[in-house]
Amino acid sequence: MTFTEELRKENEDIFSLIFEHQFVQGIGRGDVSKEALTHYVKADYEYLNAFMKVYGIAISKCASREDIAYFNQRIDFVLNSEIHPHNNFCEQIGVSYEELQGFSLPPTADHYIKHMLYHAQSGTLGEILAALLPCPWTYFEIGEELIKQYDPSPEHPFYQWISFYAERRVEDTVVVMCERLDKLAEVASQEEKTKMKEAFRKSCQLEWAFWEMAFTCEEWITKKGVSVNEKP
Ligand SMILES: Cc1ncc(CN)c(N)n1
Fold first, then answer.
1. Which of 58, 67, 107, 217 measures 20 to 30 Å from 125, CA to CA?
2. Does any domain span residue 87?
């Protein structure tokens, strides 16, 4: 079994909790509330900005141009392609994408980006990839699961979102990231592999928590109660 096959097996519990999550199932049924969609897009826009910065830190640790080109191409995908699923949600909410940009992150999303930034700053390239991999991997499998369970037609409100993540391009992203991580794991010490496993599992758990954060419209607590998610 490869290292990433092991990771997938050890985290089957979290993957299945993600597939069952009410937000994810709501995408499949086509009935997520506008409040939850809005909360998700506001947080995810900033989350993806942080994700690209983590790729940037990974570039600073690359030893070859081929590795630099790989991370550069990943940044391009987030910057220019991952706007499509957000636009699908915005159309369903009835707002422009620009209106949902620039908000501060709710607690769970804040935790998730700091978890990735921690591994980016202090870890090896393998540790960084392990922290990043659940992002494309869980979404690709969500796309696959929702197609299997709901077989959405082009009229489905979230058809674009579902088909974007179930697409070949996202599958290829996962396959290539797994191959890269497997190669790095082959030469990693036991201690480094343990760190990779911890980073991967926590990112899977934070993926579930991110859906929950959006579904419950999670906010920071203040003396007056929970604060409204305002622009800083
Ligand atoms: C939180 C999160 N995780 C994963 C993805 C898919 N790249 C995303 N857009 N947002």
1. 107
2. yes
Angstrom distance (rounded) from CA 232 to CA 165: 31
Number of independent structural domains in the chain = 1
Ligand 1 centroid from CA 76, angstroms: 15
Express each pLDDT in 166-195 by its tens digit. 999 999 999 999 999 999 999 999 999 999
Give, using CA atoms, the residue closest to atom 4 of ligand 1: 135
DSSP H helix total and E strand total for the chain = 12, 2
Q: What is the ipTM of this complex?
A: 0.99
Q: How far apart are CA 179 and CA 4, in angstroms?
A: 8
Q: Looking at residue 58, which CATH number applies to its domain? A: 1.20.910.10
Active site annotation includes 207: yes
Name the residue range of residue 12's domain: 3-91+102-226
Cα 135 to ligand 1 centroid, rounded to whole Å: 5
